[in-house]
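Fold this: Putative transporter YycB
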Amino acid sequence: MPNVSPRHKPGHPLAFRVTIMETTLIDRSTQRVLPLMPAILLAILVGLNLRPSMAAIGPLVERIQADIAISYAQLALLTTLPVLAMGAGCFIAVALARRCGADRLIGGSLLMIALADGLRLAGHGVATLLITALVAGIGIAGIQALLPALIKQQARQRTPLVMGWYIAAIMGGAALAATLAATLADLTGSWRASLALWGLVALVAFLAWQRRGPVLPDTGKDKEQRDRRASLYRQPRVWTLAIFFSLCASGYACVLAWLPPYYMELGWTESAAGLLLGYLTALEVVAGLVLPALAQRRADRRPVLFIP
């Protein structure tokens, strides 16, 4: 049983002090005790689908160029378009979530990723690759904009732990896609099939999301919360963080797109170049687990950012 002890302050809702070994979450709207592990597993399953659409491209560049007439500029768009879609789509996703609900939008986003990956099996030209890259990016944007908010609503003081697993899953998906890209292409005899197979993972995540029950519910947004969100845009710290994370994402996108092709130009095999990107991303998985655990223990979490 988890070690949970109540603490109550007059005028404040009942809260709980939770030990490091806690295995439950508290639903503040109903005061129900919810299991922590299903929330972590669902976040992991969804997070695994947010990078393979981009990470699997790099190790297959030579096969793609040998099969279709595609330039390096067009290859760059296969990772640039999803990143641009993620940046612009997050604003649209928040607005759409107010109309149709965050849970439905996340489910629809998973379907978009599955569809984009699957269509790569049937496509035979540059246009198909570019369109599917854009569609996948829009789906990724919807999830990245909304899922962390649902995690925070339910996890509360355990948010760094659940988010750590979610971020680790995102990086883990990239590592798996990069590492397995050439192997899957060899096994299936097609680089298209290697890219399309990740659509099955997205489909499984969609089915799990639809059957998640009370895990990561969408509790809705009241007017006060919307007003508070609007006021964030007037705070300098928000823009500072936006610039910081934009620079991090830009650097990561460049590595994701060009690290394998660069080493293949130096004579490395596709499998070796994919493994290199996989190893690099695996380190990010470790960081995604360790750093949130450290941040969980600190009131001021800024020093944790300087550890890397």
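Residues 1-22 have pLDDT under 50 and may be disordered. The two ends are 36 Å apart (CA to CA).
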